[in-house]
Amino acid sequence: MPEKIEIHPLLDREKQRRAKEYNRRKRFWSVITSITELVILVILVMYGAGNRVYNYLAGLPPLFQFLLWATILAVGAELLSLIPGIESEYMLEKKYGFMKQSFTGWLTDLLKSTLIGIVIAWIVLLLLGWVVKLTGPWWWLVFAGALFFLEGILAMIFPVVILPLFHKYEPIGDENLTGKLKEILERAGIRVIGFYREDSSRKTGHDNAFFTGFGKTRRIVLYDNLIDNYTVDEIAAVIAHEAAHRKKNHIIKLLLLNLILTAVISFVVHLVMLKSYHSFFEGGVHILKNIFPFILVFSLMMFIAGILTNAISRIFEREADTYALKYTGSKEAFISMLARLANRNLSDAYPGKWIKVLFMSHPPIGERIAYIEKQI
Ligand SMILES: [Zn+2]
């Protein structure tokens, strides 16, 4: 911890020291994963691996080729990040006391999410081949739109199809708590279908709460860790913050930003394909020949887009904090909630500037507390 930073009295000094170490180690493995993926992709592009595999599989029915390719890509990506993933998501979580699962339990969850990833890869790759074939030079625009639509469907089925594969949910019975939360939502003018308790403590020591679903599946999910370790006023502060996101349309704005960025990224990929990989424009299975340069350019652009998205997200987070105060009316509860979150989750409250720019979608908790204290 740099000497000059005065740590907030509600933050635990020793936990902040551990938080710095924990986050540094997490970042190390995430950077290692990105570098490995980048190096492997560059090698695959240099050796024309796409064409070689394409020629090898060319005799198979087109649909089968798509499914096989998508499976290889999804599983390959998972295998590349397997070792860093075990280090970062299992070993480190265990070392810092967050991991509550056995290694086999954790691997089972990883297998489930890999299977979900494979199904999504099938859809995306088939969609790409089909869109390029059908719309030719306009594929990048239509593809971005199609991904946007797909994201919408996934968001809708997420709480009812995906989440129950990993956790159990039960409606929150504590009327003292739900009453308070309903009050906040009413003040924000938000209608929610239900409040659910997630059995997170079986798997992790982290705390969280989120709004999820869309239309009829719209609900609020609270980790049991949050319900059991925070005061009702602190939980209300969390929900007020989430309600502010809804009220200020942050989710829709971020989705639209995502749509625009995906279109821009796809257009850059389009230009690269136009210059060096003409067979891509034949569409259908032909896109598979050039799938590695496609993924390479797409991923590099996504990295840059991620920095921009994080910067905008940090602005939205600040706005949500400001509005949340209007809904709770309790500055103290909001600050003690943030401090408890930092202490229990080992969030680094005072990270360096470049760490914030490159990695953080939220302003550091130290900044958020200082900002809230200044509000009237
Ligand atoms: Zn937020």
One letter per element, helices H and strands E, the order comes to: HHHHHHEHEEEHHHHHHH
| N-to-C span | 30 Å
Using the alpha-carbon principal axes, give the shape: globular
Structural class: mainly alpha
The total tally of domains equals 1
Major β-sheet profile: 4 strands, mixed
What percent of the residues sit in helical stretches (DSSP H or I)?
over 70%
Average pLDDT score: 94
Bound molecules: zinc ion
Give the topology.
Elements (H helix, E strand, L loop, with lengths): L12 H34 L2 H9 L4 H19 L1 H14 L7 H33 L3 H24 L6 E3 L3 H14 L6 E4 L10 E4 L6 E5 H6 L2 H16 L2 H27 L14 H38 L2 H15 L7 H7 L5 H10 L2
Helix pairs in contact: 1-4, 1-11, 3-5, 5-6, 6-10, 7-9, 9-11, 9-12, 10-11, 12-14
The structure holds zinc ion.
What does this structure look like?
There is one protein chain. With 376 residues, the chain is mainly alpha-helical. It has one domain (13-168, 246-374). Helices cover 71% and strands 4% of the residues. It is built from 14 helices and 4 strands. It has a 4-stranded mixed sheet with strand order 1-2-4-3. Strand 3 and strand 4 form a beta hairpin. Helix 1 (13-46) packs antiparallel against helix 4. The site of zinc ion has 4 residues, from helix 9 and helix 11. Zinc ion binds next to helix 9 and helix 11.
